[in-house]
């Protein structure tokens, strides 16, 4: 009676194997064509405008033909280096504050207070449904109202400090809020993919304190998601226009729009440069995140 | 295996562990409800029980990942109930491997030594020795994702041993592995534990693992210890109906007490332990291997075979008596062909003392539980 079970199983397996190759090769071909088609359409959709923009940026409209003067003038354009450095500063500042704020929060949330996760998630995803223009309008009102109404209090000092000086802290703090959804999602996905509870307990069991567990075990294990969060935040800040423009700062995105009003080819070449920087960042993060990830079948 | 490694290990061979009236409540659930248990120095004690019985909670309290609501956890007589996990010097192997994914095997093993301020050369040497001890000397540089489950668990064992733990804690370390690797690793863990003499607490829900590895097995139920005894004693002389049901498979056959023992079928069998008064109805607890069957030879028998299940060396017969009572018996598989489904059989029992329980304790005719 019992011996029948393996026999039936073996028979079933034999049938599968007999009919398998032809079926599987048919199955394999179809998605191949489908994938190629999707890739082609996506490729045209994404690369087409870039090729068009590049073609526009190198056209010699006076003499005809091709010239690269727009690219030659990019780095010497008036205001370029200031705008670029400001965007770099904003990006780095936003990434650092976001990670310093969110990494410990997310770890604590998952390890110690999982019941608060829905609340924090809702708060962090708010910027997705509140348009930046609404957010900046609110900030503008507070910045205008605060220093007068809160005179003599530490809050007044704070509100003045974030608007003055070479570093526009008000923009960085605003960007930290704007990038919260991306930081939250990246970190959350990373934490869910790693068994941080057991890793933490394993670390504690071996004698590590909470600091060592976080710095030597958890953060390295979450490297890819931390890098993803950093990249997304940086890319968002680098291309952000609305908030900076309304608050009358001129980072790279605002500079590109301003340049486009006087010189279209320069503006286009700057946009392509901006994309190139973003891609290079992505590549760098892929390289960093991909280390030690070689899969070996045992 | 390296003899150097064994010599250099200074494990807690003399460590005793005691749970003294430990309670732990989660909401309305009493995970531990007055647990009293002593682990002797150098022994491997298995905590066995169904899901939710409190065995993992007990281990976590001992590891320091949780604290008791009442009672004490004592290690060598010292109350460690409030001592943080990272101050307890206990090596733990988790069910889910829990190797640090960004560290190689040797770095994983050396991690605890690094925290203890050991020099780089020293800790690398010791980690290599321990990996040799668990048979992974060829895999020092491999990362966890480059190793099989069995290899990862060996590294986890080496890592736990590297810190010379006072007590080794094993939290279902084999349950994620396939049967062959599980059996292999089970033997290795026991070999290493015996060679090092480290006091070990092993949590499992697999009775085969518990019975084959442990010096003593503590069977838990609803946060309490039902019985703690050597595997053979637990198997042969279960003290409670639950233990009888949970450990192995047990028939509970109705019988009546007569002078000299209990009447079962046509036999009178001596009673082991407390003997109920003559004339009372009892249930005799009999393992399937203690039930003997013979073909009835075309005559009406004591029961009819309903199913036969092949277990390799033995085949388990499930039979039904005319009154509907089910009974299980193990026969050598070479004899299985004599007992096809529907065959009439004659039943007797091994002539050795049996445990009996008052009829009032019985809840079912047979305990068809686990193999």
Q: Specify the number of helices of chain A.
A: 13
**Main beta sheet of chain A:** none
User: What pair of chains forms the biggest interface?
Assistant: A-B, 27 and 39 residues
So, CATH architecture of the largest domain in chain A?
Answer: Orthogonal Bundle
Biggest sheet architecture of chain B: 6 strands, mixed
What is the ordering of alpha helices and beta strands of chain B?
HEEEHEEEHHHEHEHEEHHEEEEEEEEEEE
Tell me which oligomeric state these chains represent: heterodimer
Structural class of chain A: mainly alpha
The percentage of residues in β strands of chain A lies in under 5%
The total beta strand count of chain B reads 21
**What are the secondary-structure elements of chain A, in order, as H or E?**
HHHHHHHHHHHHH
Radius of gyration of chain A: 26 Å
Q: Regarding CATH, which class of the largest domain in chain B?
A: Alpha Beta
Distance between the termini of chain A: 36 Å
Backbone CA Rg of chain B? 24 Å
Shape of chain B: elongated
Instruction: Assign a percent range to the helix content of chain B.
Output: 10-25%
Low-confidence stretches of chain A: 1-25, 293-298
Which regions of chain B contain 5 or more consecutive residues with pLDDT less than 50?
A: 1-8, 363-371
